[in-house]
Amino acid sequence: MPPFAIIALVLILSRTITELWLSRLNQHHVRAHSNGVPIAFHGIIDEVTYRRSVDYTVAKSRFGDIANLFDAVLLIAVLFSGVLPWAFGRFSTSFGTSIWAMAGFLFVVGVALSILGLPFAWYAQFKLEERFGFNTSTTRTWALDRMKGFLLALLLGYPLLALVLKLIEWTGATWWLWAAALVIGFQLLLLLIAPAIIMPLFNKFTPLPDGALRERLFALAQRTNFPTRSIEVMDGSKRSRHSNAFFTGFGRFRKIVLFDTLVAQLTEPELESVLAHEIGHYKKRHVLKLLGVSIAGVVAGFAAIAWLARQQWFYRAFGFEYQAGCLPSRACGIVPALLLFGLLVGTIIFWLSPLINSWSRRFEYEADAFARATVGEAQSMVHALRKLSEKNLSNLIPHPLYSGFYYSHPTLLERQRALRYLA
Ligand SMILES: [Zn+2]
User: pLDDT tens, 77-95?
Assistant: First the structure.
């Protein structure tokens, strides 16, 4: 086995072992505290709900273990069985090495891999979520969502891929910079048009009806100098009882969205605090910082692909050979690097996730502090967080290593402590 193949294999296996180990650690931790409601939560959550949250956590973890194992086996099989070079050879013989054919190859591999993940997605929705009373989706809605997702990928993703490949032939050695610029531009455009064009394909958005809540939230937006055209309610209950709030678009196109499930679960002051928290993310420039990181990530990714495409050891590690007429100066010479990078990048990002998540948790604390300062009290925020933990059956006592690695948000106790601390 070539040395780099061994390195890749070790990275994939150590990721899977770490995932399983963290999951086991967390399951043990949760079970060890399952005899009764922990003292910190007395008066916050009742015995029955607490027990259900333990069961939900364990069931989700077990399912996650199986899904992770499957992903690892699939990835190893795809990378090391020789199926990719074989399929690439067959594809180029049948359809040629034109830009559209090469983009088609990448697209087909992507679709094939996502089809293999469908049974897991189906099980998660209709068995796991169903069992704990969260699923409200019908098979029809679920299947339609997948169809729409596929059509969007075909209409937007496929031409984008083709354009990236075209840039290789148009711009030569600096193609990766142009490609990164193109992809970033595309992402920004998507951010702009998604609220108007893409999200309505999946959900219904209705303006928050006139009344005390609407007045209260618009007053908050005004007070915090967060101009918004509209506050809308999304029919999240069409798929799930989980709840959320967010804002999308930017500039004049910004729009605040509340899940109908959230509006039903929280009181007016609680909703105001949640919205103040979301505005906090904007005011503290978190959105801009995240955008900056994602832009840097895209540039680094394309630089890596361009570099890897010129390394023979990289291609050989996964059974590819440079073909006559398909050197790395041509699109068909770079397609294997694009494909391999796409398959391996998740393994690299996995090892960065503790870093990314600790960064994200700092943002959450800042947004909480902003909300507290804006509404002038911490109580409604704490109450909202408690209610959401309860309704979503959140794991109240994750193992610290587990939450440190995976959690983009601090736990309820941590946020409560931070909010009180400020008082
Ligand atoms: Zn947040």
Answer: 999 999 999 999 999 999 9
